[in-house]
Structure formats: structure tokens, C-alpha cells
Amino acid sequence: MVLGAIVLGKLTEAIDERIDSPVGARHFLIDDPATAAVVASTIATATLAFVAVVFATTLVAIQLAASQYSPRAVRIFIRSRVTRVTLGIFLATFVFGVTTLVGSRANLASADQYAPQVSITVLVVLTIATVLGFVAYLHGVVRLMRVQYLLANVAEETHGSILDCFPPESAYVDVDPPRADDQPRDLRYAAAAGVMSAIDEPGLVELCRTRDCWFELTVGVGEYLAHGTLIGRVHGGDLDHTQVVGHLLVRGERTFLQDPGFGIRQLVDIAIRALSPAVNDPTTAVQALDRLNDLLAVAGTRPRPSGLRVDATHVPRVQLRVVDFDQLLTLALTEIIRYGADAPQVVRRLGALLDELEAQLAEASRAVVIDHRELLAQAVAAALPAPFSAVASTSDRRGLG
Question: Could you give the 3-state DSSP secondary structure of residue 100?
Fold first, then answer.
């Protein structure tokens, strides 16, 4: 937007020079370059101060979100399109105002002066857009600060990740698992350390096909790769470490791409932070459990991912380390049970969540739900005062209403 403002400023200046409107003709906005220079200077100065206030407000909002919800939720504020667009409009208005100011002063010093009608008109339009953008920015920041919107945003991205990582039954090919070598070749990580954010699965499959082998990946998306970490074993052929690492996206943090556990991790962080003695907000924890209930139901009613990837001829080429429903359920509930066992509202919502999952899931997936029900009962018995036991024993999707 800043670059566009520079180009637009030069373009409007060229148009004004070509039109060559006479000075002092009582135009709608301006009638001389001196007035145009004053207007452009005033708007540029005010907009620069405006930008400073908006940036400071944004930083405060990000700090509050990191401390109140979770540091991992800050990415939602940074990626907000409203924030990016409005800041871009503010900066573009400032740059265009400076460009118009320079052009107006050059025009003022020229022997053949003209009224810069187009430049001032565009500058006024950008100023109005700045005011409207500021209103939209305030609305967007207030909405981002609402925990319900934050939970919905995280849950929406996690839902898409679950659908990708837990494909339907029709997506699976009936093939036998590949035969493991007696002495497979280990590959250890030797590049820059970081978190494995994603895997180029088609590229890795094609690499194994060309080298006539299959690769067993021993690390999963979301895990930290340090120097010397065992990343996989090569069976039936040979692969180069550089070739394999070229198909792994290693960055500084986790993402929602191919990593449903990252979204659940954020929801759990928000819930347990709300349950801390410093915050003491069990209602927020119940709202997080509402979102977790939906996500776990989607993952639990789909086939368990095999992690096996085949080439075009249905020959197994890659065995991924994937997360299954049992792991997601453990991630979602263990810490909330630990820190919410003394809150009747949270206990009642946890009971309703487990009831719903047990009714929806197949027989093979109910064992882990039963284990967490027993864990909840033991935690409640150890943490909740006896007078509240009767209230907490009733399952309720609203907690305590």
C-alpha cells in the first residue's frame, strides 16, 4: 500500500500538470498550490500521529491477549486482516500526503502554477478512508479481544486440520503394510533446529518411488527437531539426508497445517489459564470445552489415520507418524481435568462431554473415554469439597447455566 501510494501520488501529480487548471478559479476543494501544501502538510502530520496511536494500541492488545489467553493465540491478532488493511491505509495516506506536499511545493516554486485538484481530491478520499478504517479497526480489536470469537477462530482452523488429518473411509487404499528391513538405515537431523510444521507428502512419496524404497518417518508434525534427532528409517534402498529434509518444513513454531493438536493445544491453554487462581474464570473453560467437544466428535467418528502413503501404483512408500483420536482426547482433557476438578461448573461440562463422546463413538474408541471418566472421578474426589459432590455429579452441557 505504501508503494502504491507513492505511485498514485506521482500519477495524480502528472494528471494535474496535464490538466493545468488555473489558479484562483474557485474550485471545489482548492484553488492554489499554497493551500494544497498546507492541507497536505496538515493531513500528513495528523496521520503520522494517528499511526503511532494505532500501533501502540495494537501492541497493548497483543500483550493482553498473550497474558490473558495464551501466547500461542497472538498469531490470530497478527494475522487479522482488519488490522493489516487499516494500518496499510493509514501508512498509505501518510505517504500520499507527503508526496502531494512535495509536489505542491515544487508547483508553488514553478513559474507556471496550476491547481492540484486531482491530488487533493484523492488525499481527501484517503483521509475519509482513514477515519472509516479507524472505526473498523476499533471494532475489529474489540471483537478479537472477546474470548468467544477467539475460541471460534481457533476451532474453525482446527476443524479444517482434523478433516485433512482424519480422512473419510473412502480415502484409504487396501494395501498390506510394507516389509521392514532387518537393518534399516537411520537418518538423523543435521540442519537448523526448529519445529516440523508440515511435510511435503507427495514429494516424499515420489522421492521414495524414484529410489525404490520406503521411508518410515519417526517424528511427527509439531515436534521439535534438534541436531541429531532421529527423523526416520530407510527400508529397501537408500535416501540422502538432504533430500529428505528438503521435503520437511521446519520453522520456529507450530502451525495448523497438518497439525490438529496445535489448535487443541491453544484451546486447552485458554481453558487452564482461565482456571488458574489468578483468573478464576470457569465459564471461559466451559466455552473452550464446547469447542473441544465438537472437534473431538469429528475426529472420533472418522477412521483412525494409518499414516501410510502409497504411490500411483498403490505401493507403500512412506509411513508417517500421525496423531490419533486417543492422543487428541488425552491432550484435550487431561490438563483441564487436573486444574478444573474443583470447579463444579467445569466438572459438569466434562461429564456431558464424555457422555456425548461415548454415545457417538464406535466400541473400539470408547475405552479411552472410559479411562478419562475414571480419571475425572478420581480427580474430583481428591480436589472437590464434599458438599459440592452432589452438584458436580450431574452432567450438564451448560456447566451451571
Answer: helix
What sign does the CA torsion over 339, 341, 344, 349 have?
positive
The boundaries of the domain holding residue 18 are: 2-145
Task: Write out residues in the chain with pLDDT < 50, as ranges.
Answer: none
Q: Is 388 within the bounds of a domain?
A: no
pLDDT, residue 383, reads 93
Distance, C-alpha 289 to centroid of its chain: 19
Instruction: Please provide residue 297's backbone torsions phi and psi, each rounded to the nearest 5 degrees.
Output: -65, -40
- What beta strand segments (E) does 226-276 contain? 230-235, 248-251
Distances (CA, A) of 243 to 14, 200, 224, 239: 53, 12, 19, 7
Per-residue pLDDT tens for 191-204?
Answer: 999 999 999 999 99
CA distance linking residue 131 with residue 118, whole number of Å: 20
Quick one: cell of 126?
484517503
Query: How crowded is residue 37: how many other Cβ atoms within 10 Å of its Cβ?
Result: 21
Q: Is residue 338 part of a domain?
A: no
Best CA proximity match to 54, nearest among 32, 93, 83: 83
pLDDT of the residue at 282: 92
Cβ atoms of residues 332 and 162 within 8 Å: no
321 part of a folded domain: no
Query: What are the counts of helices (DSSP H) followed by strands (DSSP E) for the chain?
Result: 14, 8
Quick one: which of 295, 294, 274 has its CA closest to 345?
A: 274
* Structural domain contains residue 345: no
What pTM did the predictor assign?
0.80
Count structural domains, the chain: 1
**Dihedral angle, C-alpha 56, 60, 61, 66, nearest 10 °:** 140
- In the sheet that holds 248-251, the strands lie side by side as 224-225, 194-199, 248-251
Q: Regarding beta strands 214-217 and 230-235, do their DSSP bridges make them parallel or antiparallel, or are they unpaired?
A: antiparallel
Contact 297, 158 (CB under 8 A): no
